[in-house]
# Entry
Amino acid sequence: MRALILAVCLFAAPAFAVQPGEMLADPGLEARARAISANLRCPVCQGESIDDSNAPISRDLRLAVRERLLEGDSDAEVVDYVVARFGEFVLFKPRAEGSSLILWLAGPAMLLLGGGIAFATSRRRAHAAEAESLSEADKTRLADLLDK
Amino acid sequence: MIVEFGHFTLILAFMVALVQTVLPLWGAHKRDARLMAVADPAAVIQFLLIAASFAALTYAFVTSDFSLKLVVANSHTDKPMLYKVAGVWGNHEGSLLLWVLALSGFGACAVWFGGNLPATLKARVLGVQGSIGLAFLAFMLLTSNPFLRLANPPMNGGDLNPLLQDPGLAFHPPFLYLGYVGLSMSFSFAIAALLEGRVDAAWGRWVRPWTLAAWIFLTIGIALGSWWAYYELGWGGFWFWDPVENASFMPWLIAAALLHSAIVVEKRESLKAWTILLAILAFGFSLTGTFIVRSGVITSVHAFANDPARGVFILMILAFFMGGALTLFAFRANVLEARGVFSLISRETALVTNNLLLAVSALVVFVGTIWPLVAELVFARKLSVGAPFFDAAFSPFMVILAIVLPVGAMLPWKRAEIRRTLRPLRGALALAVAAGLLAYALQTGKSTLGPIGAALGAWVVFGALVDLGQRLGRGGLAERMARLARLPRADWGKAMAHSGLGITLFAVAAMNAWSIEDIRVVKLGESFALGPYEVTLQAVNEVEGPNYSSTMADMLISLNGAEVALLHPEKRVYPVQAMPTTEAAIDQGLFRDLYLVIGDPQDAGGYAVRGYIKPFADWIWGGALLMALGGMFSLSDRRFRAAAGARRTVAVAAE
# Structure
């Protein structure tokens, strides 16, 4: 079964996804539909958006998205509509809530942590190096010697 | 017979790798010169044996020897010669053979070019390199042997995946593997240095060319792959944030960080422990990439055969090398004493910032790639992470990097004054702002991405030029030109690589912001407008290719009545694998690509047609090429060749 799904998706990949007949007449609405569907994952494929996929279910989803838009739903409402039926699996950009916060915060947190460590280490080194360098008495003596 | 010979030399190479691992490492530990001396011939012999094995497999593919299981699965007599040869590495087993060939090749190069290395360091480097070869040769012989025969050979083979039958993709894997595997040298140097307990400026100078070479190969490999995706997959995308793409991108980011931190080790003897850690991680990400592509843990469109046994084996290799290396690092890192002290505003700090940003962006890619797996195993959530996430979470780091880069590249070592460094950059800043404003004024939409990309790209490129200009000092034009000609190649390399990055950044933003797409049904003889252009579908013909049949369209593009190009987009069917592919037709231009795709015939007559205008498309790969070229310039710098010269003197003295 898995091989079949793979085969369908792979072989479908180079063919067309969005068909001319599916598109909405209103270019503004169509642009919104495209933007929404680029973020929705085809539920049976290997990582294609419903926009790129040729699987029948993706076509149904593309049509559903456009139907909701024509009914006057906002973008968020359309996405909620699809997620309510297929789960968060269809979202290419997981919502930053619950455990997915880790996903979103890993980068910024690491940047802060790494930056902090780097700053602390370089300060410590600088202090250590200063301690190792000449003492005040030595400095005056050096200055005296150089003056001579 | 030749196939058996190849199988035999592969087994022999495994034995040699065992010798290469054990004797030199033991010898280095005991300071036994005779045992250490085994490393050199062993590394060269291992390479020659694997090369013979690879040649034997290539011979089997070229002569279509269908008694070999692998050839049956991946070749066909009708296939053009180029793809018969490319078929050798267009599959799991063969690509692994290419992998170990490159690995042993780097080992042999360490022998040929590493004459100036201290004996113990060299023995340890080659020993560690041998152990990696040992692990992968065992993996091949036990789970993925390319030389298995069939009792009843069929009349013909199953052909190579048609998507892979393309010149761009034929050469994409070899470059990528040379890059992945090149990082094994940095890893071996890091482990050897930890065993020695010594990292100094000389070590920084030795490890840098290897990292640089690996990074150049990775850059070219990734660029080729992305270019292939752009023209072959038929929707004009060039990067999909697919797990397999990410697998090559993570080592690239870490290798770029490593390149820069090795400079600090070389020039200032600072950041030693961090550089070692990066060298370990860079190869770690290479291995992770191998695991992702070959285990099937993370599904991807272009992953190889998914076999759990293989996945477990690679995971064990990964665990052994990373676990061992990191443990060694934990115990020995404290002996690596940093010498150079630097103030908060200095080139060192700038390079630390560079490292931090590159490492964190690699981490974001890593977390994003494995998150679906973690979420399912740990949190029982089935979710997806795709391009929209990476666009949002990865891009900010690149923006910061681009802002910091021109300033950091010009800061003096040790202690700097920010105002003095910024002064010469005022011109570049003005030009960058102007570029952003110009982009904003010219564009039709209200996107912020385009102008930001233009400003950042200009800032990085002009910053690199200012940096180069500063190196010329004051004086007359002739004097400056003379200095320009005498400038070390590393300076040229730096300017080229940094400008390349700026160009790519700009082009990526431009392509995302300003692409125009048009999807419609077109009847024969009908015309439609694509941006300012007019496209006419003149004819659709059936054409026979060497191993496919094609539906080829003639589409005329004109601008204000004047002909621009006659394009022939195709839809091919490869009968052996019963697989259709789209061959987009592209009219390449300096400022835009016109991209046409022909689709299925419609019930109501006519054909589905997709047309795109892709602004600045070729600049993406042009920038990448410039980065690679910069790397090559840097690699040919005198101070690395001076090291080779030192070796010659030693050899002469020894005679």
